[in-house]
Amino acid sequence: MIMDGESAETGVRDEIARVGHRAGLFSRRSLLVGSAAGFGALGLAGCATTDGILLAEAAKNYGPMPDEKFPIPATDIRKVDPKYHRRTVRYETKEAAGTIIVDPGNFYVYRVEGDGSATRYGANVGRDGFLWSGDAYVGRKSEWATWTPPKEMIRRQPEAAKYARGMPGGLDNPLGARTLHLYQNGAYTLYTIYASSEPESIGSGITSGCVGLLTQDMIHLYSQTPVNTKVVVLPA
């Protein structure tokens, strides 16, 4: 069951607001828990190994996105276990194509493609005590959303008071480049699937129920996900 909305909102905002500074602003790392990366040589021409092919694919999928409103640097994939890289996998399910399935026990998010396959993304998920399961749907979508800390968080973290009227979208904003807002029965659950710029968080439980994907993965999923898309969160 999805937890009480107010407690979920308070919990996730409290957790992601461990305060740090980047150029005078909260850093993404401080807000979420709380650069362009070089890729290794792929081998001599004509002698590419399987690892080299996988690395080349990762370099393609997680490279910089300079044309975004706020240019996005490449993800440092050295900080991500290769098993969490985006890929198409065999996945048997009765859910319709387009459905999003969250598997928090294995730190994966699947987009069902039909014909027994799915696009699989590595994810961060809720920490112990904040995991939930059940059906929801995407009630709305947002790009570079404004983040507003709740009053409860401001009382605990006075540094957040500067954003009481909202933190504009940007690379330091905890909601990231894209956000899918999850609803049940017409009501916002306060849970989201969001874009994380912290590659080391993928494959771990750090949030209070929200689900984070690498920024490039989130943009990929977001572009294929219309409002009202079904979301299934499996038991951990």
What would you note in describing this structure?
This protein has 236 residues and is of the alpha/beta class. It contains five helices and eleven strands; from the N terminus they run αααββββββαββββαβ. A hairpin with a 2-residue loop joins strand 7 and strand 8. The longest helix is centred in the first third of the chain and has 12 residues. The two termini are 12 Å apart. The N terminus is likely disordered. InterPro entries: LD-transpeptidase, LD_TPept_cat_dom, TAT_signal, Transpep_catalytic_dom. One of its GO terms (molecular function) is acyltransferase activity. Belongs to the YkuD family. Pathway: Cell wall biogenesis; peptidoglycan biosynthesis.
Keywords, please?
11 strands; disordered N terminus; two-stranded parallel ribbon
Q: Would you tell me the overall average pLDDT?
A: 81
Instruction: Quickly give the structural class.
Output: alpha/beta
Stated plainly, the CATH topology is called L,D-transpeptidase catalytic domain-like
Shape: globular
Could you name the ranges where pLDDT drops below 50 across 5 or more consecutive residues?
1-50
Strand order in the largest sheet: 1-4-3-2-11-6-7-8-10
Query: How much is the radius of gyration in Å?
Result: 18 Å
Q: Share of helix among residues?
A: 10-25%
What is the highest CATH level, the class? Mainly Beta
Cα end-to-end separation: 12 Å
Biggest β-sheet: count, sense, barrel? 9 strands, mixed
